[in-house]
């Protein structure tokens, strides 16, 4: 019967059983004794299975000896304990069927040798065949599953908020406009210059930067909800931490304040890291051996230490007293830059920090104004090694305050009537946060560039594949 390499190597198939594996050749080695050793991967786990093909096979000379890295094969034989050390099991190849050849093996981009991450980004469609990107893909999957499980077990409901929207959640003007090419079947409302997106939706429409505003409506009915979906930002920052298309997880809780929000963020992150260590131990070990030495120990440290919580104002004090020279000035009222965030989390405190209560003018319009009227109930979770990983806040639940902030930020109140309704009908204190999924993957996998944390990265100048 057909089995995955993971099933076989984890001991779920008994020795002596006849098995079939299907996968791709990593390497082929031929012995003088007339045996070829094929390392076959099916991506189910980090390890390959060794298939031993004898020269008595009908297609030994015509096919087996021509197999190169990347060829697809179906191998059937008896599962036996391996003679060599290392691998526990191997397949005595009774049959090796070639399912797909590699055209031109010399120029096949994924050779069995180390490649740079830069090179692999240029062949993002083939990079999942490498050990590193296989591991990242499996870890990314495990994190996503753990996220859904975490919320499901705590009676949060997953809400699918729209990708096309008219509201700019962050009010930062970083939205991609949606338009359409084929308008033949649509009524044209504009006789002059045709505004395609207006023609379709009746107003300007954009790709969402966050599902938060929409999910607040579900929070104020179902109490505990979250989103998990793609978000888009036209920020022209070509950095190792920003993508134009990324996935975000946004829980939102009713009858909750900023402390509840910070508690949720801490409990949630620790749960996810625990799940990855428990469920992807083999891939995490590979990451620790080959990508980032401290990958496992820093997650363990993260799980065992309580997060530090400080006010923005305290953070500014710490930064002002720092023995270090920063590129960006440290001044109460300025937003924290990555260098400041990393100094706080890595050098000063040495563990994750929640910075709370930021100046109201540098944060979004929907955040709740504190009694001092100078700060809002916002928080950022800063992690050593990456900086901001989570941004969240208690929302302004008072209509008059919200209206003032909409005005102060120069937003069009007409676009937010529906959002104002939440404050008109049964308003309650509520809070939530956004976690950038790829920032989390970068952190867990010890990557240095966010372009390696998503299968097909979109950044300024890049939308290939
Ligand atoms: O801090 P942000 O902008 O917060 C929001 O969008 C809120 N509406 C979230 C909420 O309260 N529901 O973004 C949240 C997180 C950041 O902390 C970061 O991890 C990630 O999203 N993020 C990005 N990740 C990759 N590329 C980008 N361009 C990102 N921008 C934000
Ligand atoms: Mg933020």
TrEMBL record:
Reaction catalyzed: tRNA(Asn) + L-asparagine + ATP = L-asparaginyl-tRNA(Asn) + AMP + diphosphate + H(+)
SUPFAM superfamilies reported in the protein's UniProt record: Class II aaRS and biotin synthetases (SSF55681), Nucleic acid-binding proteins (SSF50249)
Broad class of the protein's primary localization: cytoplasm
Transmembrane stretches, start-end: none
Domain of life: Bacteria
Any one Gene Ontology BP term: asparaginyl-tRNA aminoacylation
Keyword Protein biosynthesis tagged: yes
Keyword vocabulary terms for this entry: Aminoacyl-tRNA synthetase, ATP-binding, Cytoplasm, Ligase, Nucleotide-binding, Protein biosynthesis
Listed InterPro entries: Aa-tRNA-synt_II, aa-tRNA-synth_II, aa-tRNA-synth_II/BPL/LPL, Asn-tRNA-ligase, Asp/Asn-tRNA-synth_IIb, NA-bd_OB-fold, NA-bd_OB_tRNA
Segments forming domain Aminoacyl-transfer RNA synthetases class-II family profile: 138-455
Record carries keyword Cell inner membrane: no
A Gene Ontology cellular-component term: cytoplasm
Pfam family, one: tRNA-synt_2
Localization per Swiss-Prot or TrEMBL: Cytoplasm
Oligomer status and interactors: Homodimer.
Family assignment from sequence similarity: Belongs to the class-II aminoacyl-tRNA synthetase family.
Protein name, per record: Asparagine--tRNA ligase
High-level lineage: Bacteria, Pseudomonadati, Pseudomonadota, Gammaproteobacteria, Lysobacterales
Record gene name: asnS
């Amino acid at each position: 019967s057909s089995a995955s390499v993971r099933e076989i190597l984890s001991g779920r198939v008994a020795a002596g059983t006849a098995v079939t594996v299907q996968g791709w050749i990593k390497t082929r080695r031929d012995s003088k004794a007339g045996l070829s050793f094929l390392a076959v991967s099916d991506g189910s786990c980090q390890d390959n299975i060794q298939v031993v093909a004898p020269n008595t096979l009908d297609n030994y000379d015509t096919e087996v000896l021509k197999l190169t890295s990347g060829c697809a094969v179906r191998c059937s034989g008896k599962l036996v304990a391996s003679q060599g050390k290392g691998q526990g099991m191997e397949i005595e190849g009774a049959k090796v069927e070639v399912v797909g050849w590699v055209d031109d093996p010399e120029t096949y981009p994924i050779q069995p040798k180390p490649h740079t991450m830069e090179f692999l980004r240029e062949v993002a469609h083939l990079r999942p065949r490498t050990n590193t990107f296989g591991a990242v893909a499996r870890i990314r999957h495990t994190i996503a599953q753990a996220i859904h499980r975490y919320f499901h077990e705590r009676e949060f409901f997953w809400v699918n908020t729209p990708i096309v929207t008219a509201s700019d959640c962050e009010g930062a003007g970083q939205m991609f406009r949606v338009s359409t090419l084929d308008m033949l079947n649509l009524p044209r409302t504009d006789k002059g210059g045709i505004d395609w997106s207006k023609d379709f939706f009746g107003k300007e429409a954009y790709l969402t930067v966050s599902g938060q505003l929409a999910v607040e409506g579900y929070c104020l009915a179902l109490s505990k909800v979250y989103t998990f979906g793609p978000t888009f930002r036209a920020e022209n920052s070509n950095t190792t931490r920003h993508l134009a298309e990324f996935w975000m997880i946004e829980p939102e809780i009713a009858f909750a304040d900023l402390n509840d929000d910070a508690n949720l963020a801490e409990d949630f992150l620790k749960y996810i890291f625990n799940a990855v260590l428990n469920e992807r131990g083999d891939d995490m070990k590979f990451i620790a051996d080959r990508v980032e030495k401290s990958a496992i120990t820093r997650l363990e440290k993260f799980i065992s230490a309580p997060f530090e919580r400080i006010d923005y104002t305290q953070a500014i004090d710490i930064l002002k007293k720092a023995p270090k020279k920063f590129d960006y000035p440290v001044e109460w009222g300025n937003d924290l830059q990555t260098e400041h965030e990393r100094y706080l989390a890595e050098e000063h405190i040495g563990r994750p920090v929640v910075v709370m209560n930021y100046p109201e003018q540098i944060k979004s319009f929907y955040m709740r104004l504190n009694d001092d009227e100078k700060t809002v109930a916002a928080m950022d979770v800063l992690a050593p090694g990456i900086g901001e990983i989570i941004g969240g806040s208690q929302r302004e639940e008072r209509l008059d305050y919200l209206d003032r902030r909409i005005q102060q930020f120069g937003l069009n109140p007409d676009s937010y009537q529906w959002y104002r309704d939440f404050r008109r009908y049964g308003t309650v204190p509520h809070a939530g946060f956004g976690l950038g999924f790829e920032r989390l993957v970068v952190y867990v996998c010890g990557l240095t560039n966010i372009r390696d944390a998503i299968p097909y990265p979109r950044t300024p100048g890049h939308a290939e594949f």
